[in-house]
Amino acid sequence: MTSRVVETAVVPQETARSPTGRPWAARVGHVATLLLPVALTLWLSFSRGGFFVGETAVAAVVGCLALLLWVMLARDPAAGIGRTGGWALGGLMLLSAWTLVSVLWSSSAARSIYEFDRNLLYLAVFAIVAARPDGTFSARWLVRGMAFALVVVCAAGLAPHLLPETFNPPVGDPAMDRLTWPLGYWNSMGLAAAMGLVLCVHLASDLREHAATRVLAAAATPGLATVLYLTLSRGGFLAAVVGLVLLVALGRSRGLTGGLVASAPTVALALVAAASAGTLTDGYNPGSAATIDAGRKLAEQVGLLSAAAAVLRFVLIPVDRRLAALRLAPWSGRRRAIAAALAVGALAAVVVASDAPSRLSDQWREFSGSRSVQGAGGDRLLEASANGRVQSWEVAWRSWRAEPLRGAGAGMFTHEWAQNRPIRLSEQDAHSLYLEMLAELGLVGLVLLGVVLLLPIGAALRRRGAERPLWSAVVAVGVMWLVRAGIDWDWEMSAVTLPVLALLASACARDVPRVAGRLARARLPRLLAGLAILLVALTPVRVAASQRSFTQALEAFRTGDCATTIDRSLDAQSVFGPRPDVYELIGYCDVRLGRPDLAEQMLSAAVQREPRNWELYYGLALIRGAAGRDPRPSLREALKRNPREEVVRDAARRMAGDKPRVWRREARASRLIIPEPATRPSAQETQSPAAP
Fold first, then answer.
1. Which CATH superfamily is domain 580-685 in?
2. Is 290 exposed, middle or buried (0-12, 13-18, 19+ CB in 10 A)?
3. pLDDT at residue 540 in the model
4. Rounded-to-integer distance, Cα 438 and Cα 432, Å
């Protein structure tokens, strides 16, 4: 009984290193459960970061199937779950259930279910890792695997950006001045590079890692720093600083000498080189000679710096051995107090000398204003503008105060913002996980989220002994993600959230020397758990199948093939009925085919499924206007739900009269808004609903 309660006990080295005493098939499955989070991270990274509905649903299905196999085949599927793991896992289960239950009061069942799918993905991966009976072994291999995955992702994005003539740049990059591919969002790329940098610095410094691992990790740091700079992500730099400071302060590894000597100067030089390649971040054009020359030069510099970091780290391997052999007496309490006092005094002197209070006041005024970042290239890194974030936070706060306990419902911030935004800026998320959680799921959701995120970090902080550097890396990555999640929508980017949750789950997993002979006694609980997993997995299965059909319908609609559009839309609706966008597409096709009555019925059905969506009322107004019917009531409803939307305001001005002829003409000339393949965010088209 006692052994199941003590979660931070130091186990024999062979127990922490590998799951011994298992049959060959069990060992393969044991390793496969660690490969799953790494593989999902890679796949999601190259699937637009896992932001969109279809990819999230597919990943959730894979996670549920893996969890099912673990529950049915593992010798003791709950062996690693102790008190901390049980609380954290229970919190994530309740958060997922609360998200699903919010369908009852949200204005869009489909959006709430999409959010549930994402939580289900996180729950499945967290459960598998937290249930393993070898937390230290899991954490070490997950750190290696996630570092590898993040390096691959960053290298894949860096190569076409620097060498567009060799590697074809990705098509449709929305902001070529900032490195966004493959995740599709520059701030997420910045966070991925920052997390990769922290993990690689740890691997380069941990004396328990093989010498080759330390050398390779050091070699990766200049490239990761280059990616971080080319994203021009201020939040990414903030996360990197937080993570590196925590890694050094908490880990106190003797290998930090070699790791930092190899990585710090090469990282600094890489940042200087990237800052000097102006055309790569200001006026980027993959076809111009200036961009090609600058990219080629920076690629050569990064390659040389990576080689230099590897050589430096290799040369310092003998120093690692000498440092490992040293026996130093721990500091007394008096020496620690003196050191802390000196540090506080030095910090106070810097604050006074730099006039920090006045500077911070000026920076806050700039940060809280509604002005967008004006600087180009590297200059934007020095600006304090929040790019509308403060306004998003204010809307989220007011939304929470209206429903403090349960919130407006999962996925509803987009409607809260559209209706109450003080500026003309389109937002889908609140740019703060914590405020968005309050707005959508209330105090209940935020408390459950805190249990999920903070308990594992506390468990990692309690780990002591020889593995302290490892757990310090886990804490560093967790805290830097927590900081960044407070100012961006990283929770919705599964590719940068899944690695963190997997690492935090490993901090909850106990180190159990041996598990034996429980399969026969656990048949009924296994069966019930397996049935429950299959039941909840049906939701992402339906969403994934529906999304596939809807994507085909949208592609057909863009080509003017209304027959295929209607067929595929009906397929999508038959699998997943709550979604409104299928009725929207069918309605637009019906009006093209000369069936205005049916078209109006379809848009009305869409409105019933998402009554707070201004786009549906706008589409209904265009359909009514194209048929010579009064569009003004629908336009008024659209304006009520999004009073600052210029598209609706313009249409309302042009169709303000009572002449059917004018309604027809203006409706056909109006911009049609159709949903994107993943139902986020909408795209404006110049095509009218009645166009052929």
1. Tetratricopeptide repeat domain (1.25.40.10)
2. middle
3. 98
4. 10
